[in-house]
């Protein structure tokens, strides 16, 4: 889809929603008149992203943050990474949008309008960490194909919606249920309407968790178009690919969901560790579930300079998939020694946690500050790249920033 077409075909209201601007006199705009705002739109404006965000791909759109942009406790849209596998849906009509619950293991196939979902079920709000399974891919060697994410494919926004569990139970779940799979309104890059860009899912135990939402709000507002407007599945702590955007159906499956990107090397890693570059048989690949423990120093920006004798306050976030972060440490001597620092409790389960420390440097020179989180299961971040895998998933190596003391 050309950007220009996208803009022309998108209802003014929706475009206004994604750009964050309201066209006050939209109702009196002459027919065929294109507001300046939409002429030659750039992706930053189109998606309401900050200029410092990094575009990794424009077909489909993939945009990442830098560590220092993720400093907010709750990630605002302008700093939220975009990961698309296909083309963003056009001409979304919220009034006719429906969600169908179907599949082998649904008691009764049922379709809900958005307003039915909102009025029939109780609404919940949670802060949920969404990290792309491929975040950190750029470090792998031999390299892995795909978007070369560095550290910025992670977010923790506040999502509001209804519990997936409540909706599934309303339709009825048969005893044979094993998995759910989502289907969405985005289009395959080839334009082939029979192909889905992505259709992933999760086992029932994840689908039925309190925090697994069918969300219609992000940070208190309609979800921005690029992030799944008007309805999105949000399953925090798992690879964000489970959190289907623009969802219009959820299938309750009697087997592991076999949609696009559920098989082969997609979102799967060797069940047992392999040597870098090794070929892995299909039956030896396992689906990624909970994401591993990880952290990010979001302040200061790497390259900070301070004066000798001056303390440096650092801060950031840490998360641990389904678990909580139990301990946070930093090192200024390349991991030889570690100093424990404070980490807050999460706002709710599956929200990232905030850490901070006051760092003192013994003398002038170049330093790196490294951060290391440990989860409640006792696992901590590796200092170097963890297990190689064909698609470069799950890189949770310690984040580090450069600091010069003058
Ligand atoms: N329908 C649909 N849902 C999707 C995707 C997609 O391409 N289409 N990408 C998935 C992947 S791989 C990731 S990492 C997250 C990215 O969410 P974000 O763009 O809101 O940050 O959405 C997931 N949900
Ligand atoms: Mo992803």
TrEMBL record:
Signal peptide: none annotated. Residues 287-405 form the Moybdenum cofactor oxidoreductase dimerisation domain. InterPro entries: Ig_E-set, MoCF_OxRdtse_dimer, Mopterin_OxRdtase_euk, OxRdtase_Mopterin-bd_dom, OxRdtase_Mopterin-bd_sf. It comes from the Bacteria. Pfam families: Mo-co_dimer (PF03404), Oxidored_molyb (PF00174). SUPFAM superfamilies: E set domains, Oxidoreductase molybdopterin-binding domain. Its cofactor is Mo-molybdopterin. Residues 88-259 form the Oxidoreductase molybdopterin-binding domain. Keywords: Metal-binding, Molybdenum, Oxidoreductase. This is Sulfite oxidase. The lineage of its organism: Bacteria, Pseudomonadati, Bacteroidota, Flavobacteriia, Flavobacteriales.
